[in-house]
UniProtKB/TrEMBL annotation:
Name of this chain's protein: LmbE family N-acetylglucosaminyl deacetylase
Keywords linked to the UniProt accession: Zinc
Matches recorded under SUPFAM superfamilies: LmbE-like
Provenance organism: Actinomadura viridis
InterPro entries named in the record: GlcNAc_PI_deacetylase-related (IPR003737), LmbE-like_dom_sf (IPR024078)
Pfam families linked to this entry: PIG-L
UniProt keyword annotation of DNA repair present: no
One example of a Gene Ontology biological process annotation: glycoside metabolic process
Keyword Zinc (UniProt): yes
Amino acid sequence: MALSPHLDDVALSAGGLLGTLTGRIAVVTVHGGAPPGAPPSHWDRRCGFASASAAIEARRSEDRAACEILGAEPVHLPHPDDAYGTPASTETLAEALAETLAEVTGTRSAQDTLFLVPAAIGHHPDHRRTRDAALRALAARDAGELWLYADQPYASMSDHWPGDGAEAPADEEWRARLAPVVEDFGPLEARTLRLSEEAWAVKHRAALAYASQLAPLAVYAGHFLDLDGPLRTELVWRVDLRSASPRRDSEKGAGGT
């Protein structure tokens, strides 16, 4: 079960990793809705949409296409993202994720499910709320294996991100950003995945499915779809949820980019 703050984050950040997994895969987008009748956000306008509802409808369609390419089942929660000015609280998201977890896993134990959660690199408020809500909900359910993934394109906008042939990025770049999670759950085990040509071809097709986002993303993140560019490498950290429980107030100090 992979948690995506927005309708593209998992595909861009961990699409290659999804291809290594077996069994049922669900990609749950936490901020997959918009306030009724809301005007377009600044990002919506950059993508050419005249209303928030038109943007969400198009992005959900794109996400369904991308998930089909990745062999995953899309699940879209209705919460608006921070750009619309009415984001849900971490507590509300944690409750919603607990319900979604029960629906998706069914009778299967949470300890038998692998969870992928954004590390919130880049300090985007939606990513932070998604991460903290997920950690809260999963710890309460005594979930087993959890990996934090490096958020793209934020993570690769750094001189430390590996290029072609690199084995691993410098962990120091993210140590401070992951400090709150380390405080709660202990040291994190890192894993770097460099995609093969075959795996990259699949991820590349999935990324192209988000057609409405590509032009403004290129302006923001540069040549992120290069053959040997940043999306060819994925980075995750393993979190041991059984070593501690979240203690922080995740609503404090939320920033944005």
